[in-house]
Amino acid sequence: MDDNTVHITTTIMPLEDVIGESLKKSLKTRFKERRSKLEIIAAILSAALKGAKKTEIVYKANINFRRFDEFINFLTEKELIERTDGEYKTTSKGKEFLTDYQQVNDHLLTER
Question: How many of the other CB atoms lie within 10 Å of CB of 43?
Fold first, then answer.
């Protein structure tokens, strides 16, 4: 061997292991970025402030129809949202929740 020879050691991993590692990393990132239930509730109530149909709320709140169905019954029971004439509208109690939620959120995210 002369002084110009370079030895490179490589590790060969099966494709499944490479994909598995990549998925683990992406899933960890995804779960860190998932919204809380309160964030989803706030998004739904915000989308329905002026009245909106189901599809509009789904798109504005960035949720799927299954998630919408899960949350809408709870929000209706708690009188945060109401349905009239085929539209959902945030109630005064829902607006109060949004105001309080925003204040708490702002307080927690304020750097000191």
Answer: 17
Domain parsing of the chain, residue ranges: 36-109
CATH level 3 topology of 36-109:
Arc Repressor Mutant, subunit A (1.10.10)
Decide: pTM greater than 0.90.
Answer: no
User: pLDDT by residue (tens digit) across 13-61?
Assistant: 565 665 555 555 555 555 556 889 999 999 999 999 999 999 999 999 9
Cβ atoms of 44 and 82 within 8 Å: the answer is: no
The three-state DSSP-derived secondary structure of the chain is: CCCCCCCCCCCCCCHHHHHHHHHHHHHHHHHHCCCCHHHHHHHHHHHCCCCECHHHHHHHHCCCHHHHHHHHHHHHHCCCEEEECCEEEECHHHHHHHHHHHHHHHHHHCCC
* Tokens matching residue 7: 């030895």
Query: Which residue carries 């779960």 as its tokens?
Result: 31
